[in-house]
Design a protein that fits this description.
heterodimer; A: alpha/beta; Leucine Aminopeptidase, subunit E, domain 1; eight-stranded mixed β-sheet; 51% helix; elongated; B: alpha/beta; Transferase(Phosphotransferase), domain 1; Helicase, Ruva Protein, domain 3; 5 domains; five-stranded parallel β-sheet; four-stranded antiparallel β-sheet; 34 helices; 7% strand; Kinase-like_dom_sf (chain B); TBC domain-containing protein kinase-like protein (chain B); ATP binding (chain B)
Amino acid sequence: MPLSVEKEFEFTFICKGVTSRLSVPVPIPLPQAVEDFAGRLIGCHNLPCYVEDDLKKKLDDFVTNETRNLYDENAEEALNKIRDGTTDIDSLVEKWTKAYTQEVKQYAKVEEASEETLFSEVYHNLIHSPALDTLLNLEHTYALTIEDLIDQRDKDLHHLEERQREEMEEAVRNVGKTYRDDEINLLAQRHFENSQLIGGKWSSELTNLKDTQKREFREWVVKVHEDTQSPTKSTSYLGRVRALSNALPEAEEEERSSQAPIMEESFTIHLGAQMKTTHNLRLLCTDALDLCRHKTHTVGGMVIPQPQRLQTAMSLYSNDLCALILMVDNRLNSYTGLKRAFAKVCEQSTDFHFPDLDQQFLIIEHELTLANDYRAQKKQSEDGDKVSIKSSSSSASLDALDKGSKLQTGDFYLTKHSNLSEVHAVFHLVTDDSIRSSDITSRHPVILSIRNIIKLCFRYDINTLTIPLLLSNEMTEEMTIQWCQKRVELMFKCVKGFMMEMATYGGHKSRNIQFLVPLGISEEMFSGISSMLTTIFRLSNPVVVKSATPHR
Amino acid sequence: MTELGKADFGLTTFFAKSHPNDKCGANGLPLTPNSIKVLGRFQRLKAVSHPNLCNYLDVARGKHERLMVVAEHYRHCLRSTAKSGKYTNEELFIELAFGIVSGLAHLDRIGITHRNLSQSNILLDHQGKVKLSEYGMYYMTEDGTSVAFPIGNHKYLAPEALGLGPAVIEDHTDSDATLTVPCGPKTDVWSIGLILMEILSIPYKNGFRLFSADGRCKDLELPVFGENGYSKEYLESDHLSLRSMEEVYYLWRLAGGDLVGALKKEGLTKSKPPIHLLPYYSTNEGEVFGQTRDRAELLDSTVVILSQEQLRQRLSEIDETAYYPLLEDEQSQVTSSLPTSPSSNDLSETANLPLVIREKDIEYQFHRIILYERLLKGYPYTRGHIWKEARVDIPPLVRAHVWGALLEIEGDIYARYDEIDKETPTQTDRQIEVDIPRCHQYHELLSSPAAHGKFKRVLKAWVVSHPQYVYWQGLDSLCAPFLALNFNNEALAYSCLSAFIPKYLHKFFLKDNSAVIQGKLFRLQEYLPVFSHLITFHDPELGNHLDGIGFIPDLYAIPWFLTMYAHVFPLHKIVHLWDTLLLGNSSFPLCIGVAILSQLRSQLLSFGFNECILLFSDMPEIDIQRCVQDSIKIFCNTPKSATYRQHARPPKKAKKEESRPNISYYSRDYNEQPSSELSMEPIPVEELKTEKCPRISAEDLIELGELSGPSHTKSPTKRKQNSKPMLLVIDVRNQEDFAKGSIPNSINIPFPTAFSPEGDLNPCSAVTSLNLHKVQVKVVVGSRGRNATNFAIELVRLGYQKVCVLHKGIDVLRSTNILTVPPVDL
């Protein structure tokens, strides 16, 4: 079925006794006004002005008729296809049904309000009510209990380990005397089983406690919400709130102060050549996990939740989310390095809203299979036609896929959290060693992935995003001054470009981007980065306060 | 323009389909969001007007590809009315059918297929007349391809429409094989058939009145009671309903009308918290998995009726006569067009508030748009009046036409535009196509494919019809404000552009046989030194600094003048700037430049060369209101001949002087005045470049210095009576020459003895007098030679402002009888 055709338009007129015939191809449907086309014909063929009106009329009729014919032909063809069975009626019906039931509210299945949705609504209401304090204290109390348990566990496991080590050392020392080789093997095996058993016991206890807490918490939230809804019971609601307010625990003695970021600097910038949008940039040097970890806050001997915690809780179900990018390797687990440290932070308290990290990993694994299926499928149907932006290394990474490695460089998975200090969602961005090279380009999959992340942030109202500026969690040897400068420049320019690109989609809302520099960077480098930022981004007009007193 | 009548405003909302991940267009740029596409296509619907069709009024983009459409709406639809059995009456039934068919026939004529006909969108107004609504869905969504949901009620869809299948939703697989084939208007015929059959099968009065089109003169005079088809009843009806829908909608927005708010109130914006919607996994190509679909994005065809109560409340205090302001008064030329309103004190007080506030003040805007509407109907007769009002301000609603009037657009612009060949490929096409997708693309409307098409056509039309000019990068920016204002009227956009360019950019881009670039620079070579002079004239300290670090206008001001600032500011600021620019003459842009610099003054003064370059590489935020005011001030404080450029437009022959009766002396171009030997003459560019100060013509000197007494005809600007003379004349000839004859009240500082070896002025009584007149314009007068020029340069170096040099020196005044013998110095 052609969407458009070209038809020959013929026009005859008499000029100075000579009959002239004009014949031109006209695209049907005509993409412009008939008058316009007629004007062009008159200009091109130098037609006399007295035929103008006639030409316009004839052309108009011609276009109308031919357009109608085109539509008729297409319609006829569509009907014939149904008649002769080229179009399968069942699949057609299915398509229409799908179109109506999936896209039109009137026909769509009524979605029963899921427990998740309900709870999120209730929680959001409550956290924006006077019950806020209580709610936070409750969460905090629960968190302290978990911490306690974890502490015990760690001590216990540590103790066990110590004992086993001693035993083993003792045994090894006495090899050939009191112990034979196989006996030592046996001992090792027993130790292993023992620690497995005890580890398992602790983890099941922890899981149990978390489940109980989660259940209790949710019940409490729903209950309080119900109470607030019915005015008669307001006393009981207040009672409930009060009862808890008093149950604040005593602060522990030990000092657990956390490190504040060593260096940080904030900027307000303008993006855009003509239309300016304002954004906030922050450059900070700290450990990525500091944005996740809760720092305890002691006031008058009482451990109270941090102020950031309040902010994070209040915005959890709002349209103002915070996220963090962590650089991870291509294995979906939490056994090593930063991944392990991150898992430990997550474990520190119960997540009352989202599944455990391990459970989230299960979901991600499932989605990953789908993603890999899709990739495989796409690879099959891959023809030369490349209209989409693709990473230059896509062919190389497809080979890696064949070898069974599932996560590819530049992929990312996302976990959601309600129990972290300053973030709601974490992007785990998969990298490999190539990122250590000093000459990566803006087409590197990890950089492109940053773009995808920023895009998601615009799409899903994540207004604060923390990006590891060097694309690394820590300082390493190869990061020379030149290396850093090159990387920082690349990142600033790319992020700037991505943000400008996304502005078309996300309107003109202002965003916060935090650039994270690993601990251990020198002060000179930090100030170097800061001055580079001011040259790449345009700072908004500073308000100059003129005062008589000079600086310092 | 359709009157509001008893119509409501109906608001509907839907989501445009978001693009599959990272698709690119043929030009390699990311695809335009579908919501933008719809926004662009929608504009044409605003121009559709027919008695049986509801008018479309506005479209707005919300968050995440949400679109909100406002259209005329009525509370009764066929579905509800037919149940009463009204249409069992054959006559009424036929009328109903006729109404529907008339509406559809009109759509067919303009090439729009409805394809969305159903009982619920055949609306009936209070007289029972058919008003089709939602007929634009299929058109604006490009045959349904810009949205995920199917368009049309399946019950009434024609077999071929069903047979073609729903619009293809591009999913993960890119298959170009299945393109969506559009449906023709005949599919609507099937739908009417089915609907009418349904009506017949249920058990149906109406005074169908044909649309009466009175001539436009009707609006210019007060209707006489009982005549002109105005019945008593008509007169008593509320006046607001006689205003056009666009106007009322504009006022509704000002009265606090908020589309998103209205949707929220109806619970139509409720969506899941985004944290629940987030995907779990994304591949390195950005393909995401595990995200949840928000049910709120499904199509909900509820129409929210926008309450007019608040608007009527706000306007209730306004006197009836305000709806019919008198334009001409035989007794006096209209003194003030702003009536006092009983509710909020004197509106002329409002007129003194900042523009942004005025544009938001509903009562003020109400009076302004009614006034302008009447004035525009009388154009071109009312040109002078429009000009006068435009000096106060221009309401956004009528800006497009007022600009047309200010640029003196006349004649059959449509026929002229039609005649131009805008299709045949030319060698500038490539450049145009590169420039358009980079021109003001933050603007929703201008970034739509519909806008790109129009852009190209208007630009091509201009290039083709001005063979003596070349296309330059910047023409696109110049075109943007006109196109954005006249989106549905390419012919007017084109006409404005064509009138604008000769006025402000006369011969900037003449096609030069040798080299295009040189041709361009040639005009600027004169423009830029004049700009430099003007900076120095008004702000010698800044001028000296910029000169000192070598930061010459050539380095930053070229894009300003080539686009009349349309390249450096966002559109909403350009319109305010141009509102004033259009009133000034061709020298006004120079003053704007000085105003911009003065806003950045403190920064510039503290910056070195590199920082200055960096500062202007990306124009900093400028307060445009202040900039406009400053430039007017600068303009008024500059003698006209100081900005003389030989390449400005020569006077038009037989200028219709009487058409703009109230224009001040300043809005006319210097070049448009008859010249005499006392006037300015061309100065070679090389000479211009060596000078630092502008020159003033003898004519200006006489006029501004009031040397010829009050009898002189050309009255300069309004000036306070008590003010000191505007000029201080400094004669730098030697004492003998000065004593023989000089300009009255001039002071004598002979050049050779003026300066100490350190470069300071040697103190004397004349110097004291000079220092007392710091703010006055200082005219340095010499005889032949470069003494005057050099003296002026020294004054500038010492930081004296407003220094200029008399062109051709004292000799030019010999023929006049101005020169007198100065009183003996005491």
